[in-house]
Design brief:
Protein name: Transcriptional regulator PadR-like family protein
Organism: Oerskovia enterophila
InterPro entries: Tscrpt_reg_PadR_N, WH-like_DNA-bd_sf, WH_DNA-bd_sf
CATH class of the largest domain: Mainly Alpha
Oligomer: single chain
Strand order of the largest sheet: 1-2
Pfam families: PadR
Domain Transcription regulator PadR N-terminal: 13-88
Shape: elongated
CATH architecture of the largest domain: Orthogonal Bundle
Helix content: 55-70%
């Protein structure tokens, strides 16, 4: 029987259970502490829901329950062999096969031409400032944990984020410079030659689909 596709939250949960058995509250707190909530939507509810699904699929199993004082009863789970295999397969698949994602920035850029230049510039400058702050935060945290000996192989996702943010920041700087200098003309009209070209392509595409 084919394995069910693991969600991002489920993959993070299984990854933690490689370290030791945990109860859902401990899983949630550890993910938050490590900053892994940037990788997926992580809430107490989503963690408990994902753990229930993993247990139903046989990827984790209960090893015990406990209660401390007036706190609710906590159920501790451990990884099963099936869960270990499913985790390895899913991780390798995500590493090796690019998937089309839909981040918000490309969507906004595709529609930015329809708002006035100053609104676009103000928004881009705000994003540039927020992106610079994000880069500083990531770099600082990365340097701290590396200084204290955390192996690089445990930080590859952070390295990727740092390089991604650096690239976005450099592109934003270039775009804003072009807007400031006039190299990017916000009011440039679409030439008739392109309109003719687009119309011809549209007509050809329509003809190709005529039965």
């Amino acid at each position: 029987m084919a394995r069910k596709e693991l969600s991002a939250a489920a993959l993070l949960l299984l990854g933690l259970l490689h370290e030791q058995p945990m109860h859902p509250y401990q899983v949630h707190q550890t993910l938050k502490q490590r900053g892994d909530d940037r990788l997926a939507s992580i809430t107490p509810g989503s963690v408990y829901h994902a753990m229930d699904r993993l247990a139903a699929d046989g990827y984790v199993e209960v090893v015990g329950t406990d209660r401390e004082g007036n706190r609710p009863q906590r159920t501790t789970y451990r990884l099963t062999d099936a869960g270990r295999d499913a985790f390895a397969d899913r991780t390798a698949l995500l590493l090796g096969h690019p998937r089309r994602e839909h981040p918000c920035l490309p969507l906004a850029l595709s529609q930015a031409h329809a708002i006035d230049r100053q609104s676009a510039v103000d928004a881009l400058r705000a994003r540039r400032a927020a992106t610079a702050d994000e880069l500083a935060s990531y770099t600082s945290r990365y340097d701290v944990v590396r200084h204290h000996g955390l192996p690089r192989r445990l930080l590859l996702d952070v390295e990727y984020d740092i390089h991604r943010i650096e690239s976005e920041l450099a592109w934003l700087d270039g775009l804003l410079a072009d807007l400031d200098s006039g190299a990017l003309d916000w009011d440039e009209s679409v030439p008739q030659s392109f309109r003719d070209f687009a119309a011809a392509r549209s007509q050809a595409a329509a003809t190709d689909h005529v039965p």
